[in-house]
Amino acid sequence: xxxxSATPARRRRAPGLFLLLAALLTGPAAALPVSDALxxxxxxxxxxxxxxxxxxxxxxxxxxxxxxxxIGRRAGGVEGFAYSKALRDSGILWDAASLDRFLENPFAAxxxxxxxxxxxxxxxxxxxxxxxxxxxxxx
Length: 139
Ligand code: HEC
Hints:
By secondary structure, the protein is mainly α. Helices cover about 40% and strands about 0% of the residues. The protein has seven helices and no strands. α2 packs antiparallel against α7.
């Protein structure tokens, strides 16, 4: 039996939120919870990532920094890449939540960023993209 009567106002939260919290609490070592956090699908994310490949690669710096090892890294953390001061000084640690915010609207999340891309507006596409980036693993 459940305890609905004791707490009638309390609603069950979406399981995704718990996974997101778990990912935030357990930190960079927990690659799997990060990829699951927003309910993303890495395979679909690979297709979304094609939009990023005008500037990014998983394995080497191009117009944008390489994306291997992204989860758990400080923003502006790829050695030898010439980041904007705005991104370097942002204090962001890349995890599911911070990536979701940045990728929705890079200019709003980090005013002054040099990433010339308007963002990915669809939350499911962002979740898929983040699952793909998390699955890419270390450099
Ligand atoms: C027009 C080129 C361009 C496109 C397209 C682009 N980016 Fe970027 N990206 C950049 C540049 C340049 C930077 C460095 C920004 C800075 O220094 O402010 C960057 C930075 C980033 C960072 C921060 C990395 C770090 O090491 O801190 C992430 C994450 C990122 N991009 C993800 C993406 C994703 C995901 C996509 C596709 C949806 C994408 N970008 C599309 C150019 C681009």
